[in-house]
Amino acid sequence: MSDAAITDSEARTPRSAEGEHPGWNVRWIAMGLLPLILLAGVLALIVATDAGLGDRTVPPIETLSVQRVTLPEPDRITVNVVNDGPDEITIAQVLVDDAYWQFTLDGPRTLDRLESTTIDIPYPWVEGEAHAIAIISGTGVVFDAEVPVAIESPETNSATFARFALIGTYVGVIPVALGLLWYPFMRRLSGDAMRFILALTVGLLVFLAVDMFQEAQEVALTAPAAFEGPLLVPIVALLAFLLLMTISSRKSDAPRRGLAVAYQIALGIGLHNLGEGLAIGAAFALGEVALGVFLVIGFTLHNVTEGVGIAAPILRERPALKHFAGLALLAGAPAILGVWIGGFIYSPLWTTIFLAIGIGAIVQVVVEVTRIIMRGATRENQPWLNWTTFSGVTAGIAIMYATALLVAA
User: Do 369 and 263 contact (CB within 8 A), yes or no?
Assistant: First the structure.
């Protein structure tokens, strides 16, 4: 190759960071920033000229999302609202039971997009009765809220914290601990029976994931529509699943210890019980459900099988007693936290996110337990999907469905 050809080839080849042209990095960064700068200019032009549409003569688009209605004390109702529309909205009037009523706000009357405020209404509500609330904007648009059953909202004090903690213990920690007590019995099971128990665990977790997805979608519909709650559920669940799979990935093909899988199952179930506690606390605070003895019994029966699923991966091991205590707390204690959050500072958006994370965590655990089943089948030269595993998955789903009916009742 001639010297001229070499020189021409070098002229066409970009120089490296250590090359002779130190200004190359600056030009490279500028080339990357140029489209962003131009995009910012275009967006600024659109905003300044109202996209070329001129002065808009149509009425503003107003949407007010009611997030929470509470009765903090007798003769007082508070309503937390968020401007969920693209335009600002002014809160002009409030009706309670078809009568105009005075009110105060903890901020300005006019709310910008996604700005929130609390409406304080001095109204003599009647315990045990329903009350209808209507919020009227400056343009006359009416937004409805309601108090299904008027019950004074729980106060933030030590007695209420203790009472909510007891409820969370009943529906979370105690059922999981009772389920773990089957560990000595399950250790004596045969190989086929253990595969059945592992498949049963998969069935339990699949039911929990589907149940959480349905619940998350319902809660997402009550969050401000601007956040796209129903779309947020699968996205957050997928990201949580991928994150946990990335963390648990291993360079080698060595099987994971059963105790590690048990802790993963406990974490996934704990996130589910957190969402369950959120629902219980919010319902209790709003007076929408009577947390009687029968309801607590129903949750206990529904959750006791979770302990069986946690114990399944460690049947070939003999963990120390402290691990059983840790597993019970990891899976059950989040229910206590959930009841506290739901009872005092419930938020539909954050509840949706918590539930979606729980879905991703549970699906990741389903993958781990399925791997255990497949490795065992490979060692014994058997198909991993047979009548034993199919029956186990079916039994797990059936048990969870049957006990869920007690809670629904």
Answer: no
